[in-house]
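Risk mitigation, structural track. In case the binding assays with zinc ion fail to produce interpretable data, a predicted complex structure has been prepared as a fallback.
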Amino acid sequence: MKHKFIDMHCDTISELYRRKIVGKPYSLFENDLDIDIKRLAAGGAYIQCFAMFAYLTKVDSAYAHAEALTDIYYEELEKYKDYIAPVFCLADIEKNEKVGKISALLTLEEGECCEGSTEKLKHFYDRGARMMNITWNFKNSLGHPNHIDVNNGSVSPDTENGLTEKGKEIVEYMCELGMTVDVSHSSDKSFYDVADIVKGPFVASHSNCRQLCGHTRNLTDDMIRVLADHGGVSGLNYCPAFIKDGHPDAITADDFADHVLHFIKVGGEDVVGLGSDYDGISSRRLQIKDPSYAPLLWETLVKRGLTEDQADKVFYKNVLRVLSDIIK
Ligand SMILES: [Zn+2]
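Fallback model:
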């Protein structure tokens, strides 16, 4: 049986762009990526967030790159408007559901897309962006991520360097506009700086529990508690490296459930949602290998002891609560 879900993060648009620039066919409706409309619908998708991502050292302008991705995003939504439609305000979510359409929510995964400018941030807001990461894995004009050693891929938490003054200004402006502040990829210090500024909820759109898997893309128990105190949510990331340390085998729905249960144990049943990171990760070893497998995850959560209402909280109610609080 299908259960509706909100997925806070995927990189599908970047993959479609990659195909477009080399002249290969691409389609959001049906493709060989992790996410397409067909499989979203088969799995029960309610809202899919689509990230506009810029790899800072590989693009000339993060702003221009995010613009190009946003163009593709709207071109695809227009082509398949019978099945999926964008969200600009809360009422759009309900409107889309009523007519049987999936809602699409635009997000920015690299604060530098607005190049430190409130005008550019407002520009993306006007184009539908309702969530933005402070950083990806590079330091930018807004703040610091956790360290990643480019030589061996190892990461260590940065508890010293957080938001810049510009970053603090942009976070305040995001709150004013009604944009969700996303601390996934942020340094530990940036996380706490955001928690100091944002009064209500914020999110870690695609991060797991560091206590279970020691990667610094994941949240410590203290961060989970702080996030819960703010009424915020962390989205379960399906990336094998963030679920299980150096584990070569299949990553099962039970492995996902371990993190969900830990989130609930530490921060309560309102603190966890979904943030698959599909098309930004390798899904090859995943039992929940694309959105059409979502019902199996819901059933696994219930098998592991969650009530049906708690499983629904993880699947969509918690994130919907946060969006309802922030988006106007
Ligand atoms: Zn990411």
